[in-house]
């Protein structure tokens, strides 16, 4: 059986602003991510990594080009269809955790599942499983403000995987953490991605983290460039 393509970007262009102030950040980006692949998005600040991740995650619309998620053309899809795809097939981890401060870790991971229509029991069981996987078994009832930066980011990872997405998008997921915590949180992320067999597209400044993924790509002059092969 051939590997499934989870994300396909076809000739994506994105220009900000108009006329003389127009800034063309993406200028014909092509990318395919197959099931099980973990792709590092590297490159200097301002090269267009966040722009590309937002487009891939259906949070922003390209100026032109086509996006396929799990083989479905999302470019001309309605807002409702895009929202549905986003909440069922895609998980996000941002640089800052964006957890709900008045809710505990368990509730933060249950909430997206309840919104998606899961029962309380099912949502709780799966949240407990994910929180244990990210090493927070003893912290599930702590409110997010009571957790360390690394622990908060672990909850954010569990929350991103709560609805069993096919694709995980992460924008500098360990960028706010010290190097040691960053490495350990990143190992957890990689472990979960491999265990759940999902695909991931992860922006990072950190060459050591990028080297642990399947492939590395970079936005250079608005185009996507494939870098050398990786260890995985
Ligand atoms: P990176 O994530 O690699 O740091 P970004 O995608 O955030 O890069 O930004 C790429 C370029 O696009 C930068 O020059 C940035 O200033 C510009 N940019 C990003 N978002 C906007 C926006 N909403 N309006 C105008 N320019 C933007």
What this model shows, in words?
The longest helix is centred in the last third of the chain and has 17 residues, at 179-195. This protein has helices at residues 49-56, 79-89, 105-115, 120-133, 149-160, 179-195, 207-210; strands at 5-16, 23-34, 38-42, 64-69, 72-73, 90-93, 167-171, 199-203, 215-220, 223-226. With 232 residues, the chain is α/β, with parallel strands linked by helices. The strands form two sheets. It has a six-stranded mixed sheet. A four-stranded antiparallel sheet has the order 2-1-4-5, covered by helices on one side. Helix 4 packs across helix 5. The chain has a single domain, classed as Rossmann fold, CATH 3.40.50.300. 33% of the residues lie in helices and 26% in strands. The mean pLDDT is 91. The protein has seven helices and ten strands. The chain binds adenosine-5'-diphosphate. The site of adenosine-5'-diphosphate has 11 residues, from strand 2 and helix 1.
In spatial order, strands of the major sheet run: 6-7-8-3-9-10
Number of domains: 1
Shape: globular
CATH architecture: 3-Layer(aba) Sandwich
The number of helical elements comes to 7
**Distinct ligands:** adenosine-5'-diphosphate
Order of helices and strands: EEEHEEHEHHHEHEHEE
Radius of gyration: 18 Å
Total number of β-strand segments?
10
- CATH C-level class: Alpha Beta
What helical percentage do the residues reach?
Answer: 25-40%
Mean pLDDT over all positions? 91
- By CATH, the topology is Rossmann fold
Which structural class fits the helix and strand makeup? alpha/beta
Percent range for β-strand residues? 25-35%
Per CATH, the superfamily is P-loop containing nucleotide triphosphate hydrolases
């Amino acid at each position: 059986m051939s590997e499934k393509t989870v994300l396909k970007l076809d000739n994506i262009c994105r220009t900000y602003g108009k006329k003389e102030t127009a800034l063309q950040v993406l200028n014909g980006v092509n990318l395919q991510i197959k099931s099980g692949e973990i792709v590092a998005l590297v490159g200097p600040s301002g090269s267009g990594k966040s722009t590309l991740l937002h487009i891939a995650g259906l949070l922003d619309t390209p100026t032109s080009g086509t996006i396929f998620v799990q083989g479905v053309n999302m470019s001309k899809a309605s807002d409702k269809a895009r929202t549905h795809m986003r909440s069922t097939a895609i998980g996000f981890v941002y640089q800052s955790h964006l957890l709900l401060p008045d809710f505990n870790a368990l509730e933060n991971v249950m909430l997206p599942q309840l919104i998606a229509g899961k029962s309380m029991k099912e949502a709780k069981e799966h949240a407990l499983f994910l929180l244990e996987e990210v090493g927070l078994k003893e912290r599930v009832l702590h409110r997010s403000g009571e957790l360390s930066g690394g622990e908060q980011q672990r909850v954010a990872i569990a929350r991103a995987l709560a609805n069993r997405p096919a694709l995980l998008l992460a924008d500098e997921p360990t960028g706010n953490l010290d190097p040691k915590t960053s490495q350990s949180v990143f190992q957890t992320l990689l472990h979960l991605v491999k265990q759940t067999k999902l695909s991931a597209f992860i922006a990072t400044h950190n060459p050591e983290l990028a080297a642990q993924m399947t492939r590395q790509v970079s936005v250079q002059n608005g185009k996507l460039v494939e870098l050398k092969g990786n260890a995985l």
